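Entry type: protein chain
Record version: 2
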Amino acid sequence: MSIDPKTAMATADDVAKLVGVSRWTVNRAFKPNASISPKSRAKVMAAAEELGYAPDLLAASLASDRSNLVALLIDDFANPHKLQIIEQLTRILRGHGWDTLLVNTLNAADAPSALLTASQRRVDAAVLIGVQFNDQELESALGARRVRKLILFARQSENPNTISICCDDQAAMTTLTDYVGEQGYTRPLFVAGPQTTSAHLLRKETFVSRWQQVHAQQLPFVAVPAYDPQLSYQAVADHLRTDGERPDILVCENDALAMGAMDALRFEFNLRTPDDIAVIGFDDVPQAATPQYQLTTYRQPIAEMVNALVDVLKGTADMETLNQFSGQLVVRASA
């Protein structure tokens, strides 16, 4: 049996007739966790391939009230850590039966329309990965019921109706602060990212507070408007040109800022890392281990966090531990 693509598209009924099973058996064969024998599934899949049949996912989502589609809303592609997150999110979600819709949120004003785009595709959840989402926008999206689940990934929100899946920044930065002190550094400069008031990180606050608690010393910091190595390069260079006392270590909120800072030390001031000024980052992006940087950093457990996201989608997550993931300090030559 064959279907002429010029006249008609194959249906589940066509596949069922070719295999000699019911239409419901065909539908079950395309559901990852449905009750069907491997032998029957293989026969259905072979017939579907022969006929060129694929199930209508939109129709299936309307029937089941679930799309098996997750929207990923991202706003800072200059940060290489986001590529790591996207790779693991898409791979692990796909392995559990969820496809992904990638939405580039261009700026803060674009966030509401991006969430609307996600809701129009009936996604099971919208995952926000970035810095341009404020509490007002999150509340508006939830109030309009634009998405069923609004999840902030690798970032914390105070909105009680969102779900935050993130590393325990306070525990992580306490580890980094103590390491910096144990290595004998006495004049840290913290290089921070955007100073957002929501959907934020607690890295700068924790480092400054812990350092003051242990060393009774107020710390300066530099704020970079985006997690962009080029912007970090310029901000660090400007600070070192105008500030009187040179730091002995730059503690950076993430690796993107750290790599920009290291390049500024080398190319603007001909300084060596760590001999003249040490540098430490956060995230452990692939570039951190290259000979160019050899960056000491803190590695987030991204795979564990994505698996927790899968549990949230399935409704089996331990909601009390989603913002308490622990990573590990990775020591390299930069500090």
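Comment: The chain has a mean pLDDT of 85.
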